[in-house]
Amino acid sequence: MSSVLIAKQPILTQTQSLYGYELLYRSKTTTEEWNGDLATIEVMINAFLNIGIDRLAGSSTVFINFTENLINQELATHFSPEDIVIELLEDTPLTETMKMKIQSLSDRGYRLALDDVTPLLFSKWQEADMIKYLTFIKIDFLGTPDNNHRRELARAIKLTDPNIILVAEKVETIDDYEEAKQLGCQLFQGYFFMKPKVMESREIPSYYLAYVKLIEQIDETEIDLSKISNTIKKDLSLSYKLLKLINSPAYRRMERIKSIDQAVVLLGQKEIKKWLYVLALRESLQHSQQPGIDSLVKSSYYRAKMCENLAKQLIPHLTQEAFLVGYFSQLPIILHQSLDQILGNLSLDGCIEATLKGEPSSLRDIFQLVMAYEWVNWEEVDQLTETLNLNKTMVFEAYQKANQWVNNVFQLADTDTVS
């Protein structure tokens, strides 16, 4: 499983209470070639899907850097204006196209911050008449080392637009902090308060073909949600991300999730399409796929389908719950997290949770039989087969069909990788 890193640096008010965080890309490899587009996309995927924005920032405002290319591609418009502050980099060129994009974002209610502002950069934006579209200007204390220049800059900003929120960034000493307050800065960020805190999680590899299929399906005039959910079921990574997303504060609902079908309906076409676009964009920028098929992920697919096959014969009204029991049973090992922590990130039905915890449930014996078959524990297989009033042929057929389904899923993934 790949490791997921992201850093957050707090942005504080004058009373040093938390206002928000700037989210920053981090990588374990120091030799990695910098790609600003991919860095922003990784930050968004890791923040909202892998780690969870509620765990990362709670209800606080998040600032995320956007490159010229991602502004032109209108990536930010896939999120609501309340989700993020769009931080425009200092090297953003003020072409006519870019100026129109920035104006459009502002008109649609997005909050824009200009990063690393020096007197020269401010003059450039002022001459282009673009200051009026900004909500925040971040004064770069390291980039403007002369305090007289910083004072003139702050005064010029306020004369141009008194509603601009001044953010003092790269504040490294108590003197910087005191000066920033005197300049009229309302928000503060820098090593004086806290260095960026790196958070780490794990990501399940996705099996490639699902993105292409789903984007095709979701763009059809007549949306078939059952087709969409069937495609998602063939990708453990997407399934987990979907259920984790629906359990975040922005989407959380009272009912517990019993199936991928239910989650697809509750989340809705627009939200699914947004994240498919972001995930597919990352794939196109990476130009590489994770080699091989992890045995734990493959085991999850097998368990899911065999649980479903057995449930069809014994308790057909619980087939979708049975699928999710098997599907998510390997997540503690895959993600290096406790089962309780994982279940806390998902809003699963009580029967699914009880089965995964090994507690009494309608699905416990079915799940135990599936695992006994996987572990080649024939004594337990015979015992559970008898307990469930099945025969060996029925169990073998359920196993055989599960294996055929798994092989088909991964053959398609391998074919897509080769092509």
Automatic annotation (TrEMBL):
Annotated ranges, domain HDOD: 204-394
Name this protein carries in UniProt: HDOD domain-containing protein
Source superkingdom: Bacteria
InterPro entries xref list: dGMP_Pdiesterase_EAL/HD-GYP, EAL_dom, EAL_sf, HDOD, RNase_Y/CdgJ
Span of domain EAL: 1-210
